Amino acid sequence: MPLKIIESSERFIRFSVDGISPSIANALRRTLVNDIPKLAIENVQFHHGQIRDTEGNVYDSSLPLFDEVVAHRLGLIPFKTDLKMNFRDECSCEGKGCPLCTVTYSINKLGPSEVLSSDLQAVDNPDLVASDPNIPIVKLSEKQAMLVSAEAILGRAKEHAKWQATSGVSYKYHREFTVDKEIFEQWELIKNSCPDAVLKEDKKSITFTDDVPHRQIVQLFEAKGVRIVEDDTRFVFKFETDGSLNALEVLDYALKRIPQRINTLLDSVVSTD
Amino acid sequence: MIIPVRCFSCGKVIASDYKQFKEKISELSAGGKKPTPKMIVQTLDDLHVERYCCRRMILSHTDLIDEVLPFS
């Protein structure tokens, strides 16, 4: 089952897997979508009442958005995640919350201003910042202030979408376009604009692939003199992450996670005799 | 009200892209010009907002938070 990485960056990856069936490909896709752990805010505490700054000016804690809307927005913010952390229900603290399973964040912001995700400061864990610093959370007008503390824990997307580390997870069959050079004469144009898409070439024909999509290749779908072959044992995957984890890290975790999931199923099967 | 943090359909974080999008569009429409559809497409592509689920989040959003701000 060779896995080949076609292109990868911090937040995006495209790779192909050879010799698998659609059911295995879909298992990998579903694992990538809903079984990758990441940090997200779970509990939020708002300070209600007056807030004073260092000079003694008094601010009001009411916000233009409802507290639950702000809490929901806080939950959706992605944070850099350390996979060595424990899940809260599996932690040695027995679900009470300790530094091994919980990251505490605080916001202390005075108006008039816009509260951004970069205003969330992690207590004790300066590395685990919001992976996107410019997400607006709420706006404060004059004499308004926000004093909030929040707890982030590890979770999986099957419980809530805020723990979804990946987006746009998709796969397709590897596809080959064999072009008859005599019938389809614009082949050279495509060859020049996307030389990476050429698989093989001889005197009479040239073969392209659309593993990496390219605008020029689209015209081959409806052209005469082109034979299209799809390989249903070779899958081209792509997905992007929200920055909480590296794309390669996510793939690595997913590949280790699939056997664990299957073992859970095997363990729960009981023989009847 | 305020731009949603993530795309409703796919979960991509789009709130931070909305700001950049607005800045670029106001740059393009400087001096009373109207940005062409091609320019808007290019702007979204440059921000890596590629799927149409994420694009509609940005294109169809109306920012009303400044309107309600005085009444909170």
Walk me through the structure.
Helices cover 19% and strands 37% of the residues of chain A. By secondary structure, chain A is of the alpha+beta class. Chain A folds into two domains: 3-35 and 167-239, Gyrase A, domain 2, CATH 3.30.1360; 38-156, DNA-directed RNA polymerase, insert domain (RNA Polymerase Alpha Subunit, Chain A, domain 2), CATH 2.170.120. In chain A, strands 1-2-14-11-13-12 form a six-stranded antiparallel sheet, sandwiched between helices. By secondary structure, chain B is mostly helical. Chain B has a single domain, classed as Arc Repressor Mutant, subunit A (Orthogonal Bundle). Chain B has four helices and no strands. Chain B has helices spanning 15-28, 37-46, 52-59, 65-68. Classes of the chains: A alpha+beta (273), B mainly alpha (72).
Count of separate DSSP helical elements of chain A: 4
If you average the pLDDT of chain B, what whole number results? Answer: 92
Q: Tell me the CATH superfamily of the largest domain in chain A.
A: DNA-directed RNA polymerase, insert domain
Beta-strand segment tally of chain B:
0
Reported CATH architecture of the largest domain in chain A:
Beta Complex
CATH architecture call of chain B: Orthogonal Bundle
In short:
The complex is a heterodimer of chains A (273) and B (72). Chain A has 273 residues and is α+β, with helices and mostly antiparallel strands.
Itemize the secondary structure elements and their pairings.
The complex is a heterodimer of chains A (273) and B (72).
Chain A (H helix, E strand, L loop, with lengths): L2 E6 L3 E7 L3 H13 L3 E9 L3 E3 L5 E3 L6 H10 L25 E9 L2 E4 L4 E3 L12 E5 L4 E11 L10 E15 L6 H7 L4 E4 L3 E5 L16 E16 L5 H22 L5
Antiparallel strand pairs in A: 1-2, 2-14, 3-10, 4-5, 6-8, 6-10, 7-9, 11-13, 11-14, 12-13
Helix pairs in contact in A: 1-4
Chain B lengths: L14 H14 L8 H10 L5 H8 L5 H4 L4
Features:
heterodimer; A: 273 residues; alpha+beta; Gyrase A, domain 2; RNA Polymerase Alpha Subunit, Chain A, domain 2; 2 domains; six-stranded antiparallel β-sheet; four-stranded antiparallel β-sheet; elongated; B: 72 residues; mainly alpha; Arc Repressor Mutant, subunit A
